[in-house]
Amino acid sequence: MNCLWHSVTTALESALPSGRCVYPFQPNFDDVHLATYASALDAELRPKFHVLPQTRDEVTIFIKTIRNYVIKNNVKFAVVSGGCLTARGCSSIEQGIVLNLSQLKGIRILSEDIVEIFVGEKWGDVYALLKSIGKMCVGADDAGMGIGNGMSLDRGLSFISPGEGVMCNNVKSCDVVLASGEVIHTSDNATPALFQALRGTGNNVGIVTSIRVRMFDHSQRIYGRTVKYDYLGFVAQIPMLVSAMQSPDGLKGADVSMRFVVSRTSGLFGINYLKYDRQTEEKTPPQVLEPFIPISSECKLGPADLSDLIKGPNRTPGKRLAHMHTCVRPDNTILVEGVDTFIIRTMDLAWCEGHIFSYCLYPYYPSHLRNINTRRDQFSMGTEPFIMIVFRLEWENRDDDNNILAEFQDVLEHIEHYANCRDVAVRFKNMSYSAHFQNPIASYSKYKRDCMKWSCSFRDPDDIFHWGVPGPWKL
Ligand SMILES: Cc1cc2nc3c(=O)[nH]c(=O)nc-3n(C[C@H](O)[C@H](O)[C@H](O)COP(=O)(O)OP(=O)(O)OC[C@H]3O[C@@H](n4cnc5c(N)ncnc54)[C@H](O)[C@@H]3O)c2cc1C
């Protein structure tokens, strides 16, 4: 270890309680490191060490200690909470420090309708606690997913979003540690510019330590089904989704997302994920979901508790995972063209070990969009419904990385070009599902980007988060 890193580790070790820094020579390093990331693309970037703060004060100590090394010695660090953002290098780093927030735990009921959740928690534990008091909040569909800030302060989608809105609308305030080490409690009432800037910004402005989320009474059981059917059925299902999205009341609070899967081991098939959060004990599906259960399908699960629906943790060490996406208006032609191109191009990649390539359709109904564009359509989402086409790509070997990512980037560009020609393209990009070559921040309105830049220059005049925290989406 050279003098600089000796000095950095000595400074952190003496400022933080013992055991907070975990180094590669320690036997538990691999357990900590590999458990942090959903994708091996991130896990194989090897940092100098992880720092695992357990309290907000310890995050403050970290920032105050490290900021001079960032300014004077070009030391770099990554910030990670849930580790689910698969764009490589956003929350991982080679030969820098990982500020790993997974131990920053705590779930506190603050009032009848607000719960405070620290960013190291997992959604499964939040749901379990809220269920015990007959409450619920909007969160990820995957119990193993962390609270983080990727989804929470972005336009994260939950199966109850059709009724309750996207994630960032449900976060009422949060605590953030700024580059100076100052802790600010920010909301639409206190420091509204900072609160707005934090939404959809990733790691550009500060380190979020906890979020306060709206909760509501929820004693009902939840209807959930995973419906698997043969691959020809997928194209037949698309018009049903399109017409449901075009009707003014959508699916009446139910949620449908669809996937077309090409798997090396299981072949080609379609899956519909059907969810409805106001279900009685009846075994039959709500009428509005019936068209999404093809006759020759295999179904799993009828009316169920949330804990049956949310299985997590969805992590396989060593698995390479990537997402990329684009958004289009509900339009049969573009969605069918998309899946056709996707299938044809996967033929060229059929030899890739362990591949599971999915073409996913995530709808944004008008009810999702209510209130989100608080001012001047900040996220360029508009108020018209649209569908996010997400490619979820899993495979095993590093040697296949370039071929797979380049091939699907090309498919995505083809779909975007075609969507532009048909005038059904939507500018919006969701950071949560972006690949390294996409730029969600560029998709925001100029007003939103100016607000974010202003907050950064005001709150972080030394550009600690710009230069000290590398990644693809810097302001
Ligand atoms: C298995 C799986 C299931 C998913 N399920 C859903 C779902 O149901 N709904 C949905 O909308 N999306 C879902 N996603 C997508 C997910 O929302 C995004 O990947 C999201 O960015 C993950 O947030 P995270 O905090 O876990 O990510 P991380 O990788 O920890 O961080 C994401 C970005 O935010 C920064 N960051 C992290 N924590 C902080 C912090 N505390 N303060 C400041 N910056 C921070 C990081 O540096 C990074 O740039 C899923 C993804 C996976 C892999």
Mean pLDDT: 88
The radius of gyration is 22 Å
Could you tell me how far the N terminus lies from the C terminus, measured between alpha carbons in angstroms? Answer: 33 Å
Give the helix level as a range of percent. Answer: 25-40%
Q: Overall 3D geometry?
A: globular
Bound molecules: flavin-adenine dinucleotide
Catalogue the unreliable spans: none
Most strands sheet: 9 strands, antiparallel
Helices and strands, with pairings:
Elements: H1 3-15, E1 21-22, H2 29-36, H3 40-43, E2 49-51, H4 56-73, E3 77-80, E4 97-100, E5 107-111, E6 114-118, H5 123-132, E7 135-137, H6 161-164, H7 167-170, E8 171-177, E9 183-187, H8 192-198, E10 207-217, E11 221-230, H9 232-246, E12 255-263, E13 267-279, E14 298-300, E15 303-304, H10 306-309, E16 320-328, H11 332-347, E17 356-364, H12 366-369, E18 386-395, H13 401-421, E19 425-426, H14 440-443, H15 446-459, H16 464-467
Helix pairs in contact: 1-4, 8-15, 9-11, 11-13
The chain binds flavin-adenine dinucleotide.
Would you summarize the structure shown here?
The protein is an alpha+beta fold. It has helices at residues 3-15, 29-36, 40-43, 56-73, 123-132, 161-164, 167-170, 192-198, 232-246, 306-309, 332-347, 366-369, 401-421, 440-443, 446-459, 464-467; strands at residues 21-22, 49-51, 77-80, 97-100, 107-111, 114-118, 135-137, 171-177, 183-187, 207-217, 221-230, 255-263, 267-279, 298-300, 303-304, 320-328, 356-364, 386-395, 425-426.
